[in-house]
Amino acid sequence: MVLFKKNTNLSRAEALQQTEQNIYRISKYFSPSSYIESNISNGFIGKLDEETANKLKNDNQVAIVEKDQTIKIASLNIFDFEQTENVFKVQNNAPWGLSRVLGKPYLKSHEYLYNETIGQDVEVYVIDTGVHVTHKDFGGRARWGANFVNTINKDENGHGTHVAGIIGGKTYGINKNVDIVAVKVLDRMGSGMISSIMKGIDYVIKEHEEKKIFCMTLQLLNFYITANQLIKRD
């Protein structure tokens, strides 16, 4: 994974053009076995041998060269998705977790108070294992955005749907009005590559407008410079 140094004085269009020029320029370093898989904001993801990677590290326009690695969801719980159907049930009293959002006065009463208008026209991108977008708890407010895993458009793990439910589900959600957009970067085991995460982040950056948010709940064993810088830069 490679990121170029960024010129903050450029417009988005000019920055994109500069990235393309940089990619064309550094292609001279590539060995026959090295190649680019996909472009991302201000950089690219590719297969590089050690010699090519070292040449790129010494280029004065390259900020970061980092090896791809596997990551996992924050709390890995492998189960069939069918078992999650019972998680979302309509209850007269607010769930335990929601009552704690409001603090001590509401712990015993199990009440959750929220503004019915807040969250309308707001989209939350859930970068995770995918989302069961047709689940009744989302009331038609969920849709697929992108899939960067070599598998079907379905939450095969359940973690992404669980996170999306906490964000915007009718029963357990903090906000009952937001729209959920599924960005799948993790497989049925809750694992994925940093490069897939970066593709997901890059997708959200390019989709970005006002009233858009993205959420990741992942366990990173190390600090990944490329992913952090990609977010900071945009």
Explain what you see.
The strands form three sheets. The chain has a four-stranded antiparallel sheet, sandwiched between helices. Strands 7-8-6-10 form a four-stranded parallel sheet, with helices on both faces. A three-stranded antiparallel sheet has the order 9-5-11. The protein has two domains: 2-65, no CATH class; 72-233, Peptidase S8/S53 domain (Rossmann fold). The two termini are 17 Å apart. The protein contains six helices and eleven strands. The chain is of the alpha/beta class and 234 residues long. Helix 4 (159-168) links the parallel strand 7 and strand 8 (179-184). Helices cover 26% and strands 21% of the residues. It comes from Vairimorpha apis BRL 01.
How does the overall form come out from the CA principal axes? elongated
Oligomer: single chain
Helix coverage percent of residues? 25-40%
The share of residues in extended strands comes to: 15-25%
Structural class, please?
alpha/beta
Number of domains: 2
Give the CA-CA distance, first to last residue: 17 Å
Supply Rg.
20 Å
How would a textbook summarize the main sheet?
Answer: 4 strands, antiparallel
Q: Order of strands in the sheet with the most strands?
A: 2-3-1-4
- The helix tally amounts to 6
Q: Going by CATH, what is the homologous superfamily of the largest domain?
A: Peptidase S8/S53 domain
Q: What's the order of the H and E elements? A: EHEEHEEHEEHEEHEEH
By DSSP, the count of extended strands is 11
CATH topology of the largest domain: Rossmann fold
**What value does the average pLDDT take?**
81
Low-confidence stretches: 76-92
Protein name: Subtilisin-like serine protease
Pfam family, one: Peptidase_S8
GO molecular function: serine-type endopeptidase activity
Family: Belongs to the peptidase S8 family.
